[in-house]
Amino acid sequence: AATKHIEHNRLCNPEERAILVDSCAMESTEATRLLAACTEARNELDGLRFGLELPGAQDARERASASRAQLDNYVLPRLIDIDAPALIVIGGSTGSGKSTLTNSLLGEQVTTAGVLRPTTRSPVLICHPDSVGWFEGARVLGDLARVSGQTASGHAASRSASDNEAAGLSQQRQLELVTTTRLARTLAILDAPDIDSVVDANRELAAHLLDAADVWLFVTTAARYADALPWKFLQDAARRGVSLAMVLNRVPPGAGAEIGEDLQNNLRAHDLNVHLFTIEEQALVDGRIPPNQLSELTGWITHLGADQQARAHLVLGTLSGTLNDLRGQLLLLADATDAQHNALIELGEQVDQEYARAHNRISQDLEFGTVLRGEVLARWQDVVGTGELLRQLESKIGRLRDKFTAAVRGRPTQATELEGAIELGVEQLVR
Q: Which of helix, strand or coil describes residue 126?
């Protein structure tokens, strides 16, 4: 139903998508209809199993899981609260300076930065105190436990790894909330773990967090921008329609133009439309990048927080792109479901045919006396040859006497052996 609804609204059409984005608002009735359709799709996804090991079944299971995550972590929360703060997820490779950049953008330490890897062991979400209610519950990333990073004095502070361990909290499955008045009420920033972390759980969590992003701010360095893994993440994000921006960090002084041009060429080669910010490598001041190196990036973030139209452009662009991608995933899942259904029908028909053949074979064997051969025939001859058949026909008393005598002597009668042989013969036929 959600697929048909999305197709009906033709969100995958670039021209109509532009009209939707340029409107900077979604009519309440339309949002309600779309929310109902996506909720129905989410419920249907819960019922998908793909139990038959057909070609592509494992891919279908993974696609269903990813689609559930898309709906749970982004589509449904955003449709429910279209005006909720825009979430900027800062992601990137190990050692790219994500946490340092986050602290520098806000002018205070809100997340842990250092030389040990991985630095960001649990994600840190920073927002204005008035906006924390949007993120305290299960609306976004509901599978992550919330941990407050707010100190008693009201200053934002990041809980250390040892603090988390002392509290008995899993570092990978929690979301630390930190508030600061230095960030607009309309924005939130999430410092995510490394996408190439040596810790498997961190890599999985980093990918998981990207599902919730309205904007992905990818951080790379002059030494690492050509690595293959970041480009895969960028292409996946672009396929989903996520609004992208990139920070080229730690650029040697004087090399910005050359490296920036090469990076732009790579972006164009991958068909990526990304806003690029360049930061030269300089000595840190109090552990933070000098403000003059961040003026363009901070200006962009400030404008995004203050300009409702610009913010809606990014948010609705990501939403419509994600819906378009989800539509394609649902269609593929529908095909996989049809394949499972058709295979079940075919298996059922094969079982019915085998049972019918077995039934016919048994009926024919019984009708033509196949069961009366071999052991059965030998036992029948024993019964007839010894005269036991006539004796058992004489009287009820005679039959009882013979059975009693056989029981006392521990020997079965020929009739009993005959019955057993017949049963065995029928059993062999059924097998």
A: strand
pLDDT-derived band at 425 (thresholds 50, 70, 90) equals low
SS3 state at 230 = helix
Q: Where are the beta strands (DSSP E) in 257-324?
A: 275-280
Give the integer Cα–Cα distance in Å for 231 and 209.
17
DSSP string across 31-87: HHHHHHHHHHHHHHHHT----S--TTHHHHHHHHHHHHHHIIIIIHHHHHTTTSPEE
* Residue 403 burial (CB count, 10 A): 15
Q: pLDDT digits over 50-87, tens only?
A: 999 999 999 999 999 999 999 999 999 999 988 899 99
Average pLDDT over residues 135-144: 86
* CATH number belonging to domain 83-306: 3.40.50.300
For residue 89, the Cα-to-chain-centroid distance in whole angstroms is 18
Residues 6+ apart with CB under 8 A from 408: none
CA angle 354, 355, 359 (to 5 degrees): 120
CB environment 262-272: b (16+ within 10 A), e (fewer): ebeeebeeeeb
Q: For residue 142, what pLDDT is reported?
A: 85
Domain boundaries along the sequence of the chain: 1-80+307-350, 83-306, 369-430
What is the overall mean pLDDT for the chain?
A: 79
Q: Could you tell me which residue, 14 or 134, shows the higher pLDDT?
A: 134
Residue among 353, 355, 361 at smallest CA distance from 426: 361
Strand, coil or helix: 317: helix
Strand 124-127 versus strand 187-191 pairing type: antiparallel
DSSP reduced 3-state for 152? coil
Of 15-19, 23-27, 61-65, 276-280, the least confident: 15-19
